[in-house]
Amino acid sequence: MTIDDAPRDALRGGPRELLRWVASGAAVSRADLARLSGLSPSTVSQRVEALISQGLLEEAGAGRSRGGRRPRQLAVPTGGAVVGAIDLGAHHARVGTLDLSGRVVRARTLPVRIEDGPEEVLGALLAEVSALVAAHTGPDREAVDGAPAVAALRGIGIGIPGPVQHATGRIVSPSRMPGWNGFDVTAFCGQRVEVPVIVDNDANLMALGAHRTAHPDLDHAVYIKAGTGIGSGVISDGRLHRGAQGSAGDISHCRVVADPAPPCSCGNAGCLEAVASGAALVTALRDQGVPVADLTGVIRLIDDGDRHATALARQAGRAIGEILAVVVNFFNPQVVAIGGRLADCEPLLASMRATLYERCLPLATQTLLIERVTAGQDVGITGAAHLVIDHVVATS
Ligand SMILES: [Zn+2]
């Protein structure tokens, strides 16, 4: 069973939600879980026992009594199992191990040359996950009766900066990943590790990580990832909405008003990605004769108030706002959040916000939260970890 096949009650008082309440500290006992979920004590007990037998929950001594026998306290195990997470970007990858509540145990950033191809890049990143797991388990837990240190690893979640067919884990026509088209990430990784590997695009992982961290209580949310590329992830009814193939939320080739309309890598012109992505800003500045090495250089120019760079950032913000207005009118989310390296760019954010208010129905924006993703550089690996944790809970 995949996470998409998980019964709907998996969200309402289902094992995943029970686990999340304990992980967040909202519940420390079976009684708390019964109160929060509205389920009967016997159903809660059954689900808790199942989670304990899977090693996802543990009993941690006695809690405070409200008269009668002191209840046993529940906790998410911190010492044992971890999940691995890889958030691959155009030039860097964030790699980490996280515990089963989604907290980062260890993480580091590695430089990546995406053009080296999938075997080399993914091989190196998987080796890094193994090294982090080994560091976590320590030498005394290593090679006990021949079991390798990676025995503590429950699964690996991987975010890819391009379209991923969800059912197969295959990359389909990515814009800036030469040599990766059609590559089966799940199969490749499955030959190298013996745990489940779940692959998704980076915007979906950012959406999941940001939603679980900042707004787990809100059911409908849209997250824009604006970095070298541009994409979005959609949370609908509290869960990641992927659509039929996994391309839901991919706004990169939606057409925006731009004169002249810059050509896009997809063969069309005037796509959002060709106007508003970090890569597009680098190209546009160079075309205007401004020597700029990369996105970091562009952001520096904007921070310094350079007029060319600032005008382009405003244009990018308007373009994102135009597409987002359609999304907001259509989908009516409670929160729209922007993350990625361009999210800190004030002129972009201001014009995105203004366009959104101008183009949306009052009813859609009345209580709409428009904000930055605040979860920081670990948001992607946090999303990747939750993908795996949800999968482990749903399939065990
Ligand atoms: Zn395009």
Strand order within the widest beta sheet: 5-4-3-6-9
CATH architecture of the largest domain: 2-Layer Sandwich
Hetero ligands: zinc ion
What is the terminal-to-terminal distance? Answer: 10 Å
Q: In percent, how helical is the residue content?
A: 25-40%
- Secondary-structure element order, N to C: HHHEEEEEHEEEHEHEEEHHHHEHHEH
CATH evolutionary superfamily of the largest domain:
ATPase, nucleotide binding domain
How many domains, in number, for the residues?
3
Main beta-sheet strand count, sense and barrel state? 5 strands, mixed
Contiguous uncertain segments of 5+ residues: 1-10, 140-150
What does the secondary structure layout of this molecule look like, with pairings?
Layout: H1 15-24, H2 30-37, H3 41-53, E1 58-62, E2 72-75, E3 82-88, E4 92-99, E5 104-111, H4 118-137, E6 153-160, E7 164-165, E8 170-171, H5 185-190, E9 197-201, H6 202-214, E10 221-226, E11 230-236, E12 239-240, H7 272-276, H8 278-287, H9 295-303, H10 307-331, E13 335-339, H11 346-359, H12 362-365, E14 369-372, H13 379-395
Parallel strand pairs: 3-6, 6-9, 10-13, 13-14
Antiparallel strand pairs: 1-2, 3-4, 4-5, 7-8, 10-11, 11-12
This protein binds zinc ion.
